[in-house]
## 1
Amino acid sequence: MSVGSVSEVTLADVRDAHDRIRAHIRRTPVLTSRAIDELVGARLAFKCESFQRGGSFKIRGALNAVLSLDERSAMRGVATHSSGNFGAALAIAAGVRGVPAYIVVPTNAPRVKRAAIEGYGGIVTECAPNVPAREAMLAAVVAKTGAQFVHPYDDARIVAGQATATVELLEDAPDLEQIWVPVGGGGLASGAAVAARALAPRVAVVAAEPSGADDAFRSLASGRIEPMANPATIADGLRTPLGRINFAILSSQGVTVALASEAAIVRATRLFFERMKLVVEPSGAVPLAALIEAPKSRRARRIGVLVSGGNVDLDALAALFASGGAT
């Protein structure tokens, strides 16, 4: 497994990651809902990473990356740029390792996510809300501190760590025919593709993406990365551009992309709250939103859904529900 180049992430890498992080994560539950099954017309198994340490799946990859570092590389700390969830996860992982975490956060990041980063001990530096600004500020922070940069998703160690969520899902729901997973940068989706291909090659992986941030859809269709200058979606965690390593894995594994409208994302977020009593952030609701809007021919009879996180400002959630998406 290579960190900085496009290379295969193997099942052995995923198993090693699981062994490395197991003591520091929660094995999140797989839940069901008859009401949502009837709505979608399929039996769904929801892998609820909203219950994960730090409130999202991101801790899996962050821990694998940080605990993989040699002592010399780790001693000055770790750094990343993040709109929230990965920053919180890296702060937790750095705390486990006993090193500082420097997080570059865009000014438009959700308040609850920034508070979580700081609550877990992350040292926050703000930047303008665009990729060039993130990268420039991160470079300045790394130059000043000597910290080790850990990419939020474009890193084979991250992919291997995120793949452990799918390993657990397949163990707990062995009769799946499809796995639907949100895609932003692509760490969780490419990890799902790696794990499914190795453990259950009959299971198709479908990446779900907001229509207003559809770079993965366009990239996989064209065969080259198609960055999006101004993604527009309430699913803030999926505004990030598709990573190089992640694109290569998704392409090679034949992963397809399903799109979701903003109205469907709001509706799905509300469905989780009302039908399952789950607080799920809009990014985590995108696979269900895409399933609701997908034609019946695209849906299998037994589907696993990776619910990526539950970090959402409750005031913002109330405003989101008021804006539409009534069940």
## 2
Amino acid sequence: MFGKDILTAHVPDLQRGGWLLVGLIVAFFFSVATALLVFVDRLWPAWTGVGQMVLIFAGFGCTAPFFWRRKTYLALWGKVAYRNAILRHVLPGLPMIFAALAHTAYLPGTRLALGWATSIKTILFWYFAVTGLILWGRAVLAFGFDNLAMLYVYFPDEGRLVDTTVYGIVRHPVYSAVCRIGLALGLWRGTWFSIAFGLFMPIGLTLWLWLVEERELIERFGQGYRDYRRQVPAFWPRLQNFGKFLKFLAIGK
């Protein structure tokens, strides 16, 4: 994938079996988070929603200092600040968030009896699932390893501009894909909480962007990013751009 060489140049550990270690760390935190969720499901099913929300906030809380403490880490660790911050915050935090997202598919509870609306739910499930998965794949390929791993946060001068159609349609295509997949899982499970959690995902990610990620982007790009934020929605394409959005899903351009 494009950008992998740029990332490994800044994290030489990845050239010496580091990718396997990264995979093991991610798998460990994802497995522990999943085990905790299942434990709550079995012993206190009425509290499963609380457990899921606590895990979400824990994951975001663990990840946020990667951005907030950047200057402190750069002063403390210098060239290895990015490596250490990823290891300390992102590798534990993101698996917690994805474990909570995956938990939506097997939440305990009774499926809602929707009657005639079941067909609408099924259509929406397939729409969000298909567009979410395709958008995820397209966005990941366009974004590249270096940008996905947020290398630009600690090395802004080496940030690589990603010039592709989708960024004129939605500001955060990867997060848009996450919102769609979360909604699809919520609809598929069909409990009141799974659907509510799917609807909560865009709200939670909007708060994350305003409080964390986009603060860093405004700091780097100033008024230019503020203007871009006003012109382009974060996750959902405007009606007039829906055709362009479907074209991007179809051909990646």
